[in-house]
Amino acid sequence: MDKWTVQVVEDRLVEAAAVIRRLPPVRVPGYFNTWPSMIVEFADRVGQQPEPMRLPPPSPAAISRMEEALGWLYWLEPIDAKIVWLRASGMRWKPICWKVGLERAAADEHYRYALCVIAWRLNGRRKTGSGSRRSFIAAARAIGSARH
């Protein structure tokens, strides 16, 4: 990628969460079923609920992008990584605030700051310790909008 913006980072994290949901379930090794599979006839299915449709397993390229995006979370503080991952998984703000113990505005600031840190590092920059979260978010947005 030539330039990483906050929106691109957010989209990749959302895609990573979707890929994890589409992975096949983990099975315990060493256990298997020796029974033959049952042949189900139409009469057996009458009155039953249809099985839910599932998306196909993700492609190898999608799994590679997911693994790359999961590595980005190690660059963040634990609370920021938790907020980013919960939000990427599609959780609404109210349960996220309950889980992390922050107000909505503070959780949103942590979320925006974390996305800016990831985009900043992907663009080859290092964040210095000086300055507030809000000033860093504003600086990252200014650089992202100047590139367009």
Attribute tags:
148 residues; mainly alpha; 7 helices; elongated
The helical percent reads 55-70%
Along the chain, the helix and strand elements come as HHHHHHH
Distance N terminus to C terminus?
A: 14 Å
Supply Rg: 21 Å
* Mean of residue pLDDT values: 85
Number of beta-strand segments: 0
Coarse structural class: mainly alpha
Shape: elongated
Number of helices: 7
Number of domains: 1
How much beta, percentage-wise? under 5%
What's the main sheet like? none
Uncertain spans = none
Question: Summed up, what is this model?
Answer:
This protein is mostly helical and 148 residues long. It is built from seven helices and no strands.
Structural account:
- Helices cover 58% and strands 0% of the residues.
- By secondary structure, it is mainly α.
- It has one domain (6-22, 51-146).
- The two termini are 14 Å apart.
Question: What's the topology here?
Answer:
Blueprint: H1 6-22, H2 42-45, H3 60-72, H4 78-88, H5 93-100, H6 104-122, H7 133-146
Helix pairs in contact: 1-3, 1-4, 1-6, 4-6, 6-7
